[in-house]
Design goal:
With 179 residues, the chain is mainly beta. It contains one helix and nine strands, in the order ββββαβββββ.
């Protein structure tokens, strides 16, 4: 699956910074059960995220912080970062038409981000995602998925400072083969 997401959207546009992610996920689905008319699946998603970030509001770095001028100089420069991790989640599918299902997923991931910013320390992070989309059966064993990462969040649960994190909204496309 490929996902493109950004903080610059109608849900959570923060004028202090820009943040985009290009995410590539390998996904493995395991059918847990059928509940009423829903298929319930366990999802494991190793992933890599290629991130772009820049602080736009230099006054986000407050004068009470140590090395204010150095931090402003560092954090107002565009940054290319990477985040590596694995997400675990649940998928819920409901048949709409013969070949079309609506699909929702909720997941929690454990990651490593390789660059510090004014919003998030380098190192261990969590990510939470909620996605909603459509799965279309193309052949007897393959599916095309189109959807939206309705809500995505990255932070470190205050294990390190700073921990303001990032919130994103994005679009996803994926291809699945039934094994």
């Amino acid at each position: 699956m490929y996902n493109y997401a950004s903080n610059e959207n109608f849900l959570n546009d923060d004028p202090d910074y820009t943040y985009t992610t290009n995410t590539y996920k390998a996904q493995a689905f395991y059918k847990l059960t059928n509940w009423k008319s829903l298929e319930v699946e366990l999802i494991v998603q190793p992933q890599i995220q290629f991130l772009q970030h820049q602080l736009l509001n230099k006054w986000y770095i407050t004068p009470d912080q140590e090395n204010v001028d150095e931090k402003i100089a560092e954090f107002t420069q565009p940054k290319s970062m990477n985040m590596y991790g694995v997400e675990f989640g649940f998928g819920f599918k409901k048949q709409l038409l013969t070949k079309l299902k609506i699909q929702g997923t909720i997941s929690l991931g454990f990651n490593y981000i390789d660059t510090r910013t004014e919003r998030l320390a380098k190192g261990f992070t969590f990510n939470e995602n909620f996605s909603l989309g459509f799965s279309y059966k193309m052949l007897s064993n393959s599916y095309l998925y189109l959807g939206s990462n309705v809500f995505g969040h990255v932070s470190n649960l205050d294990f390190q400072k700073p921990n303001d994190g990032y919130n994103v909204f994005g679009f996803e496309v994926g291809y699945a083969i039934l094994l």
